[in-house]
Amino acid sequence: MTNRPRGTRRTALTRTAFIAAPLCMLAYGTIRLSDPDHGPGLAWTSGHIALIVGVLLFGAIFMGLLRLSEPTTGAARLSARVAALLGLVGTVAVTAQGVIDLVVGFRADDRAGMERLFQDIQSHPGVMPAVYTVGPMLFYVGLLWLVIQLAVQRRISVWRPALVVLGTATMAASLDLLPLGGLLFAVALSPLGRDAAAPRAAHIQLS
């Protein structure tokens, strides 16, 4: 049996990520709505597994969007790289938050026990900004920055970053709207996977 070339695996991962990552966010939001107590239990665990998988796949999306910005030079290249780096840092922060939620859910017997564990974890210096406030915000800053820059470069249509902005605002307004936000992300990002999987030399606007 032969191994698939590294480039082929990367292409497949990128295409999959653009479809699966937003759908994982949608799945997490939907599962969350089915769990009015918000843990611990099967819904809490399965929902956060979906969240973690989706966020990790967004790492491939950030790299794919970076490739979509090429070829470019100077300030535009630097801007895209900074945006991708911010997005990846945010990805680490959101993943860390999801892992903490999973561990707390496994260790606690009820919601009150979870709250005590959360307070204990969040009381450590640096945890709140790194994992719960500033860090996760970088995920959305990087994503918005990249898609807006791509629209300015006419690599993608303007309505795509508009949907990403709307999806971000929707999720920020209420966690109960996570499924809608995930759906908006899916509509905006899913079709870009094929083109983001491999860089191209020409400036071609994507629909």
Question: Can you put this structure into words, describing what you see?
Answer:
The protein is mainly alpha-helical. It is built from 9 helices and no strands. It has helices at 6-33, 42-68, 74-107, 111-122, 127-132, 134-152, 159-173, 178-189, 193-196. The termini are far apart.
Keywords:
mainly alpha; 9 helices; 207 residues
- Rg from C-alpha positions? 18 Å
Could you say which overall geometry the principal axes of the C-alpha atoms support? Answer: globular
Oligomerization state? single chain
Biggest sheet statistics: none
> N-to-C terminal Cα separation, in Å?
39 Å
Number of strands: 0
Uncertain segments are: 201-205
| Range of helix content | over 70%
Measured by DSSP, the beta-strand proportion falls in under 5%
Write the layout of secondary structure elements.
Elements: H1 6-33, H2 42-68, H3 74-107, H4 111-122, H5 127-132, H6 134-152, H7 159-173, H8 178-189, H9 193-196
